[in-house]
Write a structure and sequence with these properties.
CATH superfamily of the largest domain: Thiamin diphosphate (ThDP)-binding fold, Pyr/PP domains
Radius of gyration: 25 Å
CATH class of the largest domain: Alpha Beta
Number of helices: 24
Strand content: 15-25%
Helix content: 25-40%
CATH architecture of the largest domain: 3-Layer(aba) Sandwich
Number of domains: 3
CATH topology of the largest domain: Rossmann fold
Shape: globular
Distance between the termini: 61 Å
């Protein structure tokens, strides 16, 4: 049967399991919107295309499924770029569908033309380095091959965004619906565990180490390895540190948790590794600038390293390892556990890791504390958040530094820091996107500067009745910039301070709840007085613009 290309693209998305698409319509993409009208896919109208891209990323992070966003040609597409770059950095499978001017006016200066012809800008070229696959579909005779390549990139074990740019006239051309039957739409098979020889080496090195430490990153969470990492930690009494994006890989209230590793963290993990460890088992952590303390050699030097990652490009990217394993982290650790069970029963492996961690924390005397004073409200809020919401909760965090130090993430909760490209204005739309998967208590954490980049998307939550808790740290300044100008530029403050609107009235205009927090007493009944599961709340927490965290950015 012959159907329009626009209908075929929508049916393709349905086959990919996409049930929501975030975006804004425009003339060049209306044929696909018209096809969405009769589909099972919910079209979500965002307030800005950047918000739509962040929503798609939040949906993908929360669900583990392919998500989608849609925009018209030209400015619609260019507005997506920051959000899609964020998805690319986080390896999120986001299908981007954009319109394009009709092919018969390519090069003639058509309205919003972005074909790259006749002096127009090249839309696909802009996306080429922030997508795993990008294509302008100018003809229908190779459409099946385009969709095959798109599927491979989206369903890869290391996925990323895909762009399909479809000219207006091509969207209305007729093709055989049977094109879809030519597609093989299935995820990459889970990599099989490594051969016995590699696993034997891993097992031997682990059992011979005196003070091993696990460092787990986002790759371990993407693999679904939370339970097996916890089992390995408990079996051999191995302390676990995480990267920022790996928070929650084990329950951070566990006595074997060292918390988050990184230049903006408390330093307990760093101190334990440097002073005590002789073997590091690195699971899905890329050791970026933040985690590696600007690639501090004392962190990794003079100790053995075993690295496991599903992405071969991450192996030994910034350090040498005695043993590297490219494969699914969960599968490799499960195979390792099968071997270790018998060895532990025979040899009785045990350490006093818990005692050493307890002693380290008790004796630190605040030497590594990032916050000396002035942040009691932030600390109290995250303490109450962990206490009141122990499971089934999502936290999307643009602020990062407070949660990294004050929020003990349960392995039954989900913490999503915006550390991909650290783009302000991410938390609110990403959290909204997540609420279109399975609805659950969800928090968006950000500063007042970032809030003003994305607050219009609150109306998207209102329009679709999606509950959300927005926690805004309010100090009337761009906090990181002011801190750097204080520490590195002799307090020559420029373009960091600003005047805020009346947030109470702003919340009223949105039709949402508002709570201002200026004292610890204001926090006492916050979680009891406000419905944080079914309502939309703006929680405005005042902090001091001249209280700075105790670390140096060095640039």
């Amino acid at each position: 049967m012959k159907i329009k290309v626009s209908e075929l693209i929508v049916k393709y998305m349905e086959r990919m399991g996409i049930d929501a698409i975030f975006g804004m319509p425009g003339a060049h993409i209306l044929p696909i919107y018209d096809a969405l009208y009769d589909s099972g896919i919910q079209a979500i109208l965002a307030k800005h295309e950047q918000g739509a891209a962040f929503m798609a990323g939040g949906y993908a992070k929360s669900s583990g499924k392919v998500s989608a966003c849609i925009a018209t040609a030209g400015p619609g597409a260019t507005n997506l770029i920051t959000g899609i770059t964020n998805a690319y950095a986080d390896k999120q499978p986001v299908l981007v569908v954009t319109g394009e001017a009709p092919t018969y006016i390519f090069g003639k200066g058509g309205l919003q033309e972005s074909s790259g012809e006749g002096g127009s800008f090249d839309q696909v070229a802009l996306f080429r380095h922030i997508t795993r696959y990008s294509k302008t579909v100018e003809r229908t005779d190779y459409l099946s091959q385009v969709l095959i390549q798109a599927s491979k990139a989206l369903l890869s074990s290391n996925p990323g965004p895909v762009l399909l740019s479809i000219p207006f006239n091509v969207q209305s051309e007729l093709v055989d619906e049977d094109v879809l039957d030519e597609l093989t739409i299935r995820p990459d098979p889970t990599p099989t565990p490594q051969d016995n020889r590699i696993l034997d080496i891993f097992c031997k090195q682990l059992l011979s180490a005196r003070q091993p430490v696990i460092i787990a990153g986002y790759g371990a969470i993407r693999s679904g390895a939370q339970q097996v990492v916890t089992e390995l930690s408990h079996l051999l009494q191995i302390p676990v540190a995480s990267s920022l994006k790996g928070k929650g890989i084990v329950n951070e209230q566990s006595p074997l948790s060292l918390g988050s590793l990184g230049v903006t963290s408390s330093g307990n993990a760093y101190k334990y590794i440097v002073e005590k460890s002789d073997l590091l088992i690195i699971l899905g952590a890329g050791f970026n600038e933040r985690t590696s303390y600007l690639w501090d050699q004392s962190l990794l030097g003079n100790r053995s390293i075993i690295q496991i990652d599903s992405d071969p490009h991450q192996l030994e990217k910034v350090f040498e390892a005695e043993l590297t394993i490219c494969g699914d982290i969960k599968a490799v650790l499960n195979a390792l556990l099968d071997r270790l069970q018998q060895h532990v029963k025979e040899d009785g492996n045990s350490t006093d890791a818990v005692g050493k961690i307890t002693h380290l924390k008790a004796s630190s005397n605040g030497d590594y504390a990032i916050f000396k004073s002035g942040f009691s409200l932030a600390e109290a809020f995250f303490s109450k958040l962990a206490e009141q919401f122990r499971e089934n909760t999502r936290v999307f965090d643009d602020n990062i530094i407070f949660a990294q130090n004050f929020y003990d993430v349960s392995s039954r909760n989900h913490y999503y820091p915006n550390s991909g490209i650290s783009s302000l204005g991410h938390a609110i739309p990403a959290a909204i996107g997540a609420q279109f998967t399975q609805q659950r208590p969800t928090f968006a954490i950000l500063g007042d500067g970032g809030f003003q980049m994305c607050c219009m998307e609150i109306m998207t939550a209102v329009n679709y009745n999606k509950p959300l808790n927005i926690v805004m740290f309010n100090n009337g300044t761009m906090g990181l910039i002011r801190k750097n100008q204080h520490q590195l530029y002799q307090q020559r403050f420029i373009n960091c301070d600003f005047i805020n609107p009346d947030y109470n009235r702003l919340a009223q205009s949105f039709g949402i709840n508002y709570k201002q927090v200026t004292t610890l007493a204001d926090l006492d009944n916050l979680f009891e007085d406000y419905d944080m599961e079914q309502a939309i709340n703006l929680i405005d927490i005042t902090i001091d613009k001249d209280a700075f965290p105790n670390y140096s950015s060095k640039r």
